[in-house]
Amino acid sequence: MDINRAFVGLGGLFGAAGIAAYAAAAHSASGHMATIAPILSIHAPAFLALAILARMSKAAYFGGLVLVLGLLFFIGDLAARDYTGDRLFAFAAPLGGSLLILGWLIVAATAFRGLDFKSHR
């Protein structure tokens, strides 16, 4: 089976970061880690599935890239608020959230043959 190894690696990293965020939330008064943990944890197995789908579909690959950017901006902004007391940059979290929604819509579009970009190989 041909897989996208970058997405497998990201799935593993997001899973590990999700568990670390749960641990941080248990020892922190801040609410951001409690928000970050489930978001990372639900995206970890999704990236493992995208590792396979992205090799068959350019649309799924592009959707995965959009999801990565969305996670980096959204999670990055919330984590920055906890650790530095300041935002990543203005509107980073809303931009990240919007990219997450867009990324999932792009992935969903791969279900429709006419909207797919054909093979990514």
Automatic annotation (TrEMBL):
Q: Which Pfam families match?
A: DUF423
Alphabetically ordered keywords of this record: Membrane, Transmembrane, Transmembrane helix
Highest taxon above the source species = Bacteria
Q: Which residues cross the membrane?
A: 35-54, 59-76, 88-112
Q: Can you say what this protein is called?
A: DUF423 domain-containing protein
| Organism expressing this protein natively | Phyllobacterium pellucidum
Tell me the classification of the organism that encodes this protein. Bacteria, Pseudomonadati, Pseudomonadota, Alphaproteobacteria, Hyphomicrobiales
